[in-house]
From TrEMBL:
Name under which the protein is recorded: ABC transporter permease
Family designation: Belongs to the ABC-4 integral membrane protein family.
Topological category with respect to the lipid bilayer: Multi-pass membrane protein
Annotated compartments: Cell membrane
Domain of life: Archaea
GO CC, one annotated term: plasma membrane
Domain MacB-like periplasmic core span(s) in chain numbering: 19-237
């Protein structure tokens, strides 16, 4: 077996540039799969960590279908709805979130932005979770009317000049002082379209621009984790009785993680399927290279057989060559994939969508095993063809 392996490796080294070119399809396919699975696992882990920090007794309520970007809704959450939700025996508290588009002027430039706030009851809950992370300066305090916090993306990228702490912004004609810069969680970055031009203030600061009516979302805290799911069902029934089916999205933290995981899984599966095409192309490339190799080495195969090499040994030499091509392509592909995953996360973080990639040993082992299987499967036909050559005819081959 050792002699057979050495012979297969010697033949691959001799093939040189052909072996390298044969690897390309495998490298691209394995690289894409490893990168996407690593990033997908990292995104899922990021969301799970952030949602867990919010608390498993938390329910998110938003008008319309939050997971259907094409869905339109005329449903608005009202103060009466909030009062009715608070009457549910298992509800501990209801936090209202408000947002409105605004025009921001700085350094004689005017840009569009989103102004965001929560009611006083939810202020500490919001700042104590991973929704926002203080990057520079300080948190605004309840009651401040003319202070604002802005995302790092807004400070650095929105205007022609960087916005520093203590700078004044004109928002819809009102002056606000920047007291802090924040980083967005992945969940909030998705809501804010990446975080560019996103600002946070107090309810008092918000109402200088527009009355705090019809919250864009409610955060419901239940009395315990055990009743979160039943409370979510009760809230959903209330809104559907009032507004109709699918009028609101009501999700516990566990359901939110499942929804996001399902969406990411479907997207990853689709893209991995496309990457699989590269593996098919790579497998065909291996087969073509091996068939060509059999034709070029017909006399050599005849000589092997003439000095006593069995059909199984010839078969094994060619199968090992194909397997090594697949394995080498897999190794390079894994390296390319891990580098690609780091590049994707770096680009995402630079775009203020904070995610991470995760190196999972099972993904790497599976990718290498799969690349070897592709190589072996692609080498079966040319290997059998080589093994069946008649030694006398092979030695006469020109």
């Amino acid at each position: 077996m050792i002699d057979t392996t050495e012979e297969a490796l010697k033949n691959l080294r001799r093939a040189g540039i052909r072996t390298f070119l044969t690897l390309i399809g495998i490298v691209i396919g394995i690289g894409a799969i490893v990168a996407l699975l690593s990033v997908g696992a990292g995104v899922t882990q990021t969301f799970e960590t952030q949602f867990e920090s919010i608390g498993s007794n938390t329910i998110m309520v938003a008008p319309g279908d939050a997971f259907n970007l094409q869905a339109n809704t005329t449903v608005k959450l009202t103060d009466n709805d909030i009062r009715n939700i608070k009457t549910i025996s298992t509800v501990k508290d209801v936090i209202r979130e408000y947002a409105t588009p605004v025009a921001v002027e700085f350094n004689n430039e005017i840009k569009s932005s989103v102004l965001f706030t929560v009611d006083d009851e939810g202020f500490s809950f919001f700042t104590d979770t991973d929704f926002l992370t203080l990057a520079e300066g300080r948190w605004i305090e309840p009651g401040e009317k003319s202070s604002i916090m802005i995302s790092e993306a807004m400070a650095e990228n929105v205007f022609g000049r960087e916005i520093n702490l203590r700078k004044q912004l004109m928002i819809n004609g009102k002056n606000y002082k920047v007291v802090g810069l924040f980083k967005l969680s992945a969940a909030m970055a998705g809501m804010a379209g990446g975080g560019g031009g996103f600002m946070f203030t107090t309810i008092e600061g918000f109402e200088r621009i527009i009355p705090a009516e019809n919250p864009v979302e409610m955060i419901v805290k239940t009395t315990s984790t055990d009743v979160a799911e039943s409370t979510a069902d009760e809230i959903k029934d209330y809104f559907e009785d009032k507004y109709g089916k699918k009028s609101v999205t009501v999700l516990t933290m566990e359901q939110s993680i499942e929804q996001i995981g399902s969406m990411l899984g479907m997207l990853t599966l689709f893209i991995v399927g496309i990457a699989g095409i590269s593996l098919i192309v790579g497998g065909i490339g291996i087969m073509n290279a091996m068939v060509t190799s059999v034709m070029e080495r017909t006399k050599e195969i005849g000589l092997y057989k003439a000095i006593g090499a069995s059909d199984n040994k010839v078969l094994m030499i060619f199968l090992l060559e194909a397997a090594f091509i697949g394995l080498l392509g897999g190794l390079i592909g894994v390296g390319v994939g891990l580098a690609g995953a780091q590049l994707i996360t770096a680009i995402a973080n630079a775009s203020n969508f904070p995610i991470q990639s995760v190196i999972i040993p099972e993904i790497i082992i599976g990718a290498l095993a799969f690349s070897m299987i592709v190589g072996i499967a692609s080498g079966v036909y040319p290997a059998r063809r080589a093994a069946k050559l008649d030694p006398v005819e092979a030695l006469r081959y020109e």
